[in-house]
Write a structure and sequence with these properties.
The structure is a single chain. 50% of the residues lie in helices and 14% in strands. By secondary structure, the protein is α+β, with helices and mostly antiparallel strands. It folds into two domains: 1-70, no CATH class; 73-111, no CATH class. Strands 1-2 form a two-stranded parallel sheet.
């Protein structure tokens, strides 16, 4: 979540974990996914700062371009969909394109 408290956790994670990973010669950086994004002024500022940090030469993480919005009903409870739900039913209300974008990014990152 691109907010002040969540970025404190990210700072702690990248500081401790990245130090240990570098000592083991792990070069691939962790990827951060912004979620529950509500487009508030605060989250805009924090998300931009996170993107700048991820783009820096000494970055300790990278970021997905995809942002998961804060939206009620973003993912439908599968139990409510019956025994054979479609992907469109599970990710309704404009969520499916976001999920497809994320999937494409994950596949590219793993390639």
């Amino acid at each position: 979540i691109p907010d002040f408290m969540s970025t404190l956790g990210l700072d702690l994670f990248t500081g401790d974990v990245m130090t240990n990973l570098r000592e083991r010669d792990v070069k691939k950086l962790p990827m951060v996914l912004a979620t529950r994004y509500d487009n508030s002024q605060h989250q805009q500022v924090v998300l931009n700062a996170m993107r700048e940090a991820a783009a820096a030469q000494e970055a300790e993480f990278t970021m997905f371009k995809t942002v998961i919005p804060m939206k009620s009903g973003f993912a439908t409870n599968p139990i409510e969909l019956g025994p054979e739900p479609t992907i469109e039913a599970k990710w309704s209300g404009g969520a499916l394109p976001v999920i497809k974008d994320l999937l494409a990014e994950v596949k590219a990152a793993l390639a």
